[in-house]
Amino acid sequence: MKDEAEYAAIQNELRKGISLCDDFDASELKTVAGVDLAYWKNDDGEYAVCCIVVIDVATHKVIEKKHFSGKIEVPYVPGFLAFRELPLVIETAKLLETQPDIYIFDGNGYLHPRHMGIATHASFYLDKPTFGVAKSYFRVDHQTDYVEPENEAGSYTDIVIDGETYGRALRTHKNVRPVFVSVGNHISIETACSLALKLTDKESHVPVPTRLADLETHIEREKETLSGFQAGLKD
User: Which of 119, 126, 153, 204 is packed most tightly, with the most Cβ within 10 A?
Assistant: First the structure.
């Protein structure tokens, strides 16, 4: 197992390949995938399930959903979450019959000490544009806080650290708490925020793809823990 210095070296090397520009035509997007994971513990260790839900951009209808679960081999260390989650994300993406045009992660991308949150890190393996939409704020330097956007749908404030924009606090609906949007790769922050708003409906303050992926993780985690419990009864 690698140590933190080795993990950081990998991230710093990968960050050289980050593109903060739109390397695609946003008007031609047809399908979007939402990605999320859920964890649980058994006697023999920690497990997680990754769920990916692909939707139609225009109708928000579900096209496909896949999941993959497994044991987590990497301990949690702040700033290195991707190393825990990537194996499951990659295996779940392999199951997809529909290749989405873009992936949205329930988490961060560029909003990270080395700009390598899960949304960015995963892009190098998925080979698609990515961005992250987090429900809670990740304080990168333990000091910089975000400024609350105005209480109007579509309002935002940039999260700027040392003169560089790491992400945005975005209000998707009036009278709801903001979400935190950051570029993953091959997309601009402007397009990422525009898509986040376009893909958010009245049911929630987060985009449909990641909301549905989050719901699926709870369903699949319950199935996994129940099957494990039933297996224990038979032993």
Answer: 119
Q: CB pairs under 8 A, 24+ apart, for 169-178?
A: 169/137, 170/196, 170/197, 172/196, 172/197, 172/200, 172/205, 172/206, 173/200, 173/202, 173/205, 175/151, 176/205, 177/205, 178/146, 178/148, 178/149
In which band, very low, low, confident or very high, does the pLDDT at 229 lie, cut at 50, 70 and 90? very low
Q: Is the pTM of this model over 0.85?
A: yes
Q: What CA–CA distances, in Å, run from 184 to 32, 46, 135, 148, 187?
A: 14, 27, 16, 23, 7
Rounded CA separation 29/144 (Å):
34
Question: CA of 20: how far to CAs of 69, 103, 105, 142, 182, in Å?
Answer: 31, 15, 16, 24, 10
Q: What is the pLDDT of residues 132-159, one digit of tens each?
A: 999 999 999 877 899 999 999 999 999 9
Which amino acid makes up residue 195? L
The domains found in the chain, sorted by start residue, are 26-234 (3.30.2170.10)
Q: Is the pLDDT of residue 166 over 70?
A: yes
